[in-house]
Write a structure and sequence with these properties.
This protein has about 220 residues and is an alpha/beta fold. The protein contains 3 helices and 13 strands; from the N terminus they run ββββββββαβαβαβββ.
Amino acid sequence: MFKLLSYPLSEKTPLYGETKSVIVEAEKQISKGDSCNTFYLKFSNHSGTHIDSPNHFYENGRSLSQYSIEEFIFTKPFLLDIEIGEGQLITSKFLKNIPTCDLLLIRSGFYKYRNLEKYKFNNPGISVEAAKTIRENYPDIRAIGVDFISISSYSHREEGRQSHRILLDPCYHKNSPILLIEDMNLSDDLAGLKKVFAVPIFFEGVDSMPCTVIGEL
């Protein structure tokens, strides 16, 4: 069985803070006598479910198109359920009993507010302390996925930037940088999740891009 763990993009897609909305413009329309339907799309590369690569915060970091396809396949995913409130930061106290895994999925339940303004402005985030704990104690983790709009809480933006830097740092603690999959759809029952495919749009030289994430149960 397969489940979609990402959201489709649309003009209603919520974006972090004041980020400009997705724009969809019809170029050709069969209904208006054109030979086919085509569209012009304009959106931030951090729209919807997307993957942040090291190049997001490091000039010398890899962009997504520099990764091999195998690096977007995860065979040891682990789902961590936590209870956390609006604007609250995940600290190391939440990171208990995490087994060896290559993808850490953090489900806070904040996805329930995706249609509300607070999803964009009052999201939880990952603290600097937690970012350091993950980099220093879980060397097998290659990616982190969250069910909120960004690992950077809009209420703690500078700390969020620093958490990004720690997790994406190509040289931190001699471990590989950790890809960040933000705004994931983790609303379904994911018991028995055994493999995850997170495939971004491959656009040369771009730090991050929307992606399609599929879970195999």
